[in-house]
Amino acid sequence: MPTVDGVAVKDRGSKVTGVTYARGVLTVKVDGPVARIETLELSAPDRLAIDLIGFAGPARGPKGSDGLVRDVRVGNDERRFRVVLEATGALPQYQVK
User: Fold this and answer.
1) Could you give the CA distance from residue 79 to residue 77 in angstroms, rounded to a whole number?
2) Radius of gyration over alpha carbons of the chain, in Å?
3) pLDDT per position in the chain (97 positions), as tens?
């Protein structure tokens, strides 16, 4: 059985219902608990990829940029939903929760 924060979860989520980015905060709304999140830092240009394993979601990401983020992109494959934040320069400090 999958776990979320060390607690067994019988019915985890599977769909991303919304993605927004505003004032340096990315919000990903889902239909239930997320059992596994993976992050990957990429360079040239600096990007942060956030994968929600076992989820599918919208084909379009939010519009918007600011002094920290130049672009937000989303994508799906058979195993995950991915959000990629492209930084305007070096990746700033971040938290994924």
Assistant:
1) 5
2) 14
3) 555 566 676 788 999 999 999 989 999 999 999 989 999 999 999 999 999 999 999 888 888 778 899 999 999 999 999 999 999 999 989 999 8
Say which amino acid occupies 16: V
Residue whose token pair is 């939010």: 62
Q: What is the pTM of this model?
A: 0.88
| 10 Rama class: left (phi>0) / alpha (psi -120 to 50) / beta | alpha
Rounded CA separation 52/64 (Å): 21
Give ∠ CA 52-55-60 in degrees, rounded to 5: 90
CA-based nearest residue to 37, from 50, 47, 18, 19 = 50
State the residue for tokens 């596994």.
36
